[in-house]
Amino acid sequence: MTTASTTKPLFEVAGLNVRFGTGPGEVHAVRDAAFSLDAGRCLAIVGESGSGKSALARSLLGLAGPTARVTADRLRVAGHEAREFGPREWRAVRGRRVGLVAQDALVALDPLRPVGKEIAEPLLTHRVVPRREAGARVLALLERVGVPEPAERARAYVHQLSGGLRQRALIASAIAAEPGVLIADEPTTALDASVQSRVLALLGELKESGTGLLLISHDLAVVEALADEVAVMKDGRIVESGPVGRVLEAPEHPYTKSLLAAIPGSGPRRERTVVAPGDGSAPLLDVSGVTKVFKGARGSRRTAVDEVSFALRPGEALGLVGESGSGKSTLARMVLGLAAPDGGTVELGGAPWSGLRERDRRERRHTVQLVPQDPLSAFDPRWSVARIVGEALATAGVARAERRERTVRLLKQVGLSVEHLERRPLALSGGQRQRVAVARALAPSPRLLVCDEPVSALDVSVQAQVLDLLRSLQEELGLATLFISHDLAVVREVCARVLVMKDGRIVESGPVERVFAEPAHPYTRALLEAVPRRARAAVERL
Amino acid sequence: MTPPHISAAVRAVTARAGAAVLVVWGAATCAFLALHLIPGDPVSAIVGSNALVGAEQREEIRHHYGLDRSPLVQYGAYLKQLATGELGDSYQLQQPVSSLLADQIGPTAQLALWSSLVAVVLAATVTVLTSGRSRWPRRVSSAVELLVVSTPSFWLGIMLLTVFSFRLGWLPVSDSGDARSLVLPVITLALPIAAVLTQVMREGLLGALEQPFSLTARSRGLAEHTVRSRHALRHAALPALTLTGWFTGTLLGGAVVVENVFARSGIGRITLQAVSDRDLPVVQGVVALSAVVFVLVGAVVELLYVVVDPRLRKGTGVAAA
Q1: Residue A249 CB-density burial (10 A; 0-12 exposed, 13-18 middle, 19+ buried)
Q2: Is it true that A1-97+182-190+209-262 and A285-352+364-379+445-540 share their CATH fold?
Q3: Residues of B in contact with A126 (CB under 8 A)
Q4: What is the ipTM of this complex?
Q5: Would you identify the CATH topology of the domain A285-352+364-379+445-540?
Q6: Residues in B touching A296 (Cβ below 8 Å)
Q7: Do B212 and A126 touch (CB under 8 A)?
Q8: Hey, are the CB atoms on B311 and A157 less than 8 Å from each other?
Q9: Is the pTM of this model over 0.90?
Q10: Are B213 and A107 inside 8 Å of each other by CB?
C-alpha cells in the first residue's frame, strides 16, 4: 500500500516553526517542533484548542494558509525535502503521498456534490486510474471502508448519510490515491461514542496494513486506542513525547499530568449533598408520559420522544444521557416550555406547565433556565457581557439602577470579575463564555437549570472547571439540575441519578453508581464501553 | 409515485399558482389606482392636441372608452378584461395593447436575456480570477466595480457609442436589425449588473474557500483554481441566483434608458411614451406583463436553486433523508 520506501520515515521534521502575521500581532503557532513517523505507525499529537496542533498538521501538507510563514531545519515528506517545494510539488504530494481526514465529514466533504464524486476526485487529479474506471474504484473504496450498499451510497449526498457513514466516506476519499500516510485531524470528535469506536477500528486497520497515521486529537481516549507514540503540545511547543504507554501511565511534564487529571471521572469523586430519591419532598418538575412526534416529508412521522416519565425534586441533579438523535434535546425543549408535547403533561412546582398559553406561562418562566451547549452562538456577538446578563435581569424585573451591581455579583458567583463586564463574547475564552452563560441563567433566580451539553464544546481542563462550578452552585443555591450529555463520564461528575435515553425512550434509570457498576440495558453497556479506559478504572475503584 | 406524494405536489403547484394570481392582481390594482389618482382628463390624452374635437365628440369618446362609468365599475371591467387576457386598445395608437406588447417583447427579451447571460458569465469569470491568494487583483476589481455601479447607464451608453460607433466605427449607432447592433446595449446593461453580482459572488466564494471542504479539496492535490471553480463557485452561486433573477425580471419589464439611448424598440420605450401620453391601457398592460414576468422568473430561479443545491431536492433533500 505504501509508495514510499519502508526504510525512510514518512515524515521527518526538525526545528519546524509556523508563524502567522507580522510585527507585534505575530502569532508563533508552532515552535521548534521535531518528530518522525514511520510506515505502519501512529503518532498522536495531543493538545487543547489553540495549542498549534492543527497548524502543525497543515504545514505538513503545505496548507498552513497564505498568511503563514513556515520555516524548518528539516522537513522531509515521503522522502523528499519539502522546504524547497513549489505549488506544483506540493500538489503532487497532497492526496497522493499524504492524505487528510478532517474533523466533521458533514462540512469536510462538499455538501453540493455526491460523495462518489468527492471520492473520485483524488483518483482523477493524480491520474491513478482512467476516468472510465473511476466509478468502479470508488465502489471498491467504499466497500473497503465498510460502507454497505456502496453503489447507492456513492450517489448520495453527505447530508443523507449517517455520521459514521459520512466519516467513512471522508476516509475513503483520503485513501483513494493510496497515500502512504494519513493525517487525521480530530477524526472522531463529531461522532457519537458507539460510532466513534467503529471509525477508530477502521483507522486501526489502515495502520495494520502499513499506512502511517499522524493523529491530531484532544481526546486521550482516542489516542490511547490508536497511537504508538504521543507528542503533547502546549502553546506551540511539544512539551513531552514518547511511547503512548509511558506518557499516559507515567507522565513527566506537569501539563501532561494536568491533562490526564482533567479527564472527567479520573479524579476522586467528590462528596456532595444529595437529595435522596423518595425523601418525601414534592417534585419540582413532574414529567408524565410525554410524547413528541415530528412530521417529515411525504407525511412520514418520527416519534422523537416516546412516553417519557420522570420527576425531579428540588435541589436534585438528574443526568440525561443518550447519543445524538435520541430525543434528549426535544425532551429538554418540552421541559423548558419551548415545545408542546403531543401527549402527556409537564408540571412545574405542582402546577401545569405544558398546555398553557405562553402569556400564562411567562410569569413563571424565570423558574427554569437554560445553559446552552455553545454560548458563542447563543449570545449576540455584538453585545457586551453586561448587556447579555443585564437583559436577563431586566426580564426578571430588576430596576435599571441595580442591574450593574447585580451583574457584577453574578459574575463573581461564577468566577469572573468586573473586568469582564464590557467584553464581547468573541473576546472571551470558551470557559469564560460558558461561565457567562451560567451567570445569565442564574440572573432571574431560577429553581431549575437545564444544561444541554454544557461542556461538550470545551477542552478537558476547562471542562473540569465548569463542572466544578456547576457542582458548587448546586450546593450553594440548592438548584435542581437537568444535565443533558452524551458523555457518561461527565454526567457522573455532577449527577446523583441518571436516565439513559435511546430512540425517544428511557431505557434505564437509577443512581449513577448503580448504572455505572451494573448497567442493565445493552445500550448503556455500549455507552460505557466508549468511556475512556482510565475513567472507567476510576469508576471501578469506587 | 404514491398517491399522497402526488397530492402534495398538486397542493404545492396550486399554492404557487394562487400566489402568482395574487401578485398579478396586486400589481394591476396598484397601476389602476395610480393612473386614476393622477389629475387630468384621460379624454384629452386620447384626442391629443386635436383642437377640432368638440364637447359632443368628447362625450362620445368618453362613452366609447367607458370612462363615464364609476371608477368601481371601470375597475371591475378592467379586471374582467385582464382575466381573459384582453388588455384593451391603446388610446394613442388605436390598436390592441396585447398585439402592441407582443410586437415589442421580442427585442426586449433579446436584450434582457443576453444582458443577463453576459453579466453572469462576466461576474463568474472575474470572481474566480480575482479571489486568489494575492489581494491586489481583488482590490483593483473592487474599485472598478464601484466605479461601474455608480456610473449612470445613459452616460455609459453614450460613452460606448462615442468610442466604438462614432470614433472607431466598429459598431452601428442604432438598431439596424443585425446582431452587431445588440453589442453596445448589452454591454451597457450587463456591466453594472456584473459589478453587483461580482461583489455578491466574491463574498460567497471567499466564504466557501474558508470552509473545511475547501481544505479537503486542496488536500487532494487540486490546483487552487480548480478548488475555486469546481467547489467554491457553486456555493457562491446561490445568493447570486436570486439577484440575477431580480435583474432579469427588471430588464424584461423594459430597459427604458438604454432603449432610448440606442434608439431601440422595446417595452421600455412604449412604457415611456405611454406614461407621458397617459395612455392608460398600455401602461396597465405593461404593469400586468411585468408582474407575470416576475412570477415566471421567480419560478425559474426556484427551480435553479434546486438544481444547484441537492439539499433542497425532494428525493435527496434534508427533509426526505
Answers
A1: exposed
A2: yes
A3: 221
A4: 0.74
A5: Rossmann fold (3.40.50)
A6: 319-320
A7: no
A8: yes
A9: no
A10: yes
